[in-house]
Amino acid sequence: MSVVIRKILAATDFSPASEGALRWADFLASRLGAELVLFHAFSLDPALLAGPTGVAVDLASRLLDEVRRAAEESMRELQTRFPRARAVIEQAPAREGIVRAAHAQQADLVCVGTHGRTGLPRLLQGSVAQHVVVHSPVPVLTVRQDDRPARLRCILAPTDFSPPADAALPWADFLARAFDARLVLLHVVEVTYETILDLPRAARAEPVGEALARELQERARRELESRAQSLGPCELVLRTGLGAGLSRQTIVEVAQEVDADLVVIGTHGRTGVERILFGSVAEHVVRTSPVPVLTVRQPRSS
Fold it and tell me: Cα angle at 301 between 181 and 102, to 5 degrees?
């Protein structure tokens, strides 16, 4: 798969949470020669319009005009910091507006900030970044709020050898080549009852530790080496542990160990009950990674 980044859409709500995403969008656009589009979506809280206590239609219209004027003023101030960027403002809820703008602007990459909420607040309030990651037609770079400068010296690319993970590898390779960065491929062997049953019968008869050492790890290393053949220079890292769900935390830990500046990960783009019940490795990494995360969905044609 050929990777091209000609246009980057940087979503902003003008809050500190957007600052990291703006820095990274400008950093990438400058280095890659891509067009930078600053995007802001505004809308009134539906609670203001609903029920007998909702505001009148004419008042709602005046409120929207005020919100738009404030957004235009904030965008003008933002453009003084990013003079090469083009500004787009749309009346829409942020979640849907960003996804729609990615389509309309024919963006190759979307950058959004994330608050990194966890637990009940995230479940109740939802997450703009999470919605965009799931529904965006193009890869999404999520950046947590911090003051660290944008840099790209090491990229971590976790893989479970699935088609969605394979779809993310060309993006990691492209960025590693473009920025002359280290590329680290990671696979986490999760030893579960199912993986033991999947071993050849002779291996299952031995102690689990020996079976892991010879079968699971060797199989994983062969898969990693196979992926590496189509990429530029890269390092291979294997981790092994007992129990399902180990990958989620291990990816974050290895990102810190190798001093990664970016994690590039494939996502299945699950929605609804399936995601709530079973969770998502990519979603967990987006929420907990100390460094920006680039999520890449598997192309529909794949």
Answer: 65
